[in-house]
Amino acid sequence: MTNNKMNPKVDEFLNKAKKWPEEYSVLRNIVLDCELTEEFKWMHPCYTLENKNVVLIHGFKDYCALLFHKGALLKDSHGILIQQTENVQAARQIRFTSAQEIVGMETIIKDYILEAIEVEKVGLEVPMKEHKEYIIPEELDNKFNETPALKTAFESLTPGRQRAYILHFSQPKQSKTRVSRIEKYTQHILEGKGLND
């Protein structure tokens, strides 16, 4: 039961594809069989369920791939999902290097897509690691380089205390104000104290 809602932008993408055109085509047909809506986002065919991204088709020099936006939540019973880099928290890929390989894996691919659809239907979310969202101001980084003991002391503080310091140090617009705030609390940090201790 193929969903006939083919998106003309995806047709255009496939017609222009110099690499992996056959593979993209096979992947597209498999995904369309799973009743998702075909859209074109981030310059790639993207398949959604009620406006939520489920899976994306993309290609690189050495492989093309299906990218599951919440792949980290899939069971991965075949052990084929790949985390692109260690900083990627939610998305996972299944990589391919030939159309034959894709055809041979069709039923497995569909199982993964259907599982990804279920994840979306029940509204599961990937728990994100929070500490990545706080960027250490340059002035604090410089101070860490000058005083390695400070870095060690800072890293042994609780995540909440680290966050409070980072926010406090990042607030001022001027660098010199940030530096003076860091100077003011250096001893505190070395003693293992939080901002308000």
Explain this structure to me?
The chain has 197 residues and is an alpha+beta fold. It folds into two domains: 8-121, Alpha-Beta Complex (Aspartate Aminotransferase, domain 1), CATH 3.90.1150; 130-190, no CATH class. The protein contains eight helices and five strands. It has helices spanning 8-16, 21-32, 99-104, 106-121, 138-146, 148-155, 159-170, 175-190, and strands at residues 37-41, 44-49, 52-59, 64-68, 92-96. The chain has a five-stranded antiparallel β-sheet with strand order 1-2-3-4-5. Helix 5 (138-146) crosses helix 6. The relative contact order is 0.10.
Short description:
With 197 residues, the chain is an alpha+beta fold.
How is the quaternary structure best described? single chain
CATH architecture term of the largest domain: Alpha-Beta Complex
What value does the Rg take, in angstroms? 23 Å
**Number of helices, counting only DSSP H or I runs of 4 residues or more:** 8
Intertermini distance = 64 Å
Low-confidence stretches: none
The CATH class of the largest domain turns out to be Alpha Beta
- Biggest sheet record: 5 strands, antiparallel
- Number of strand segments: 5
Strand coverage percent = 5-15%
How many domains, in number, for the residues?
2
Shape: elongated
Mean pLDDT: 90
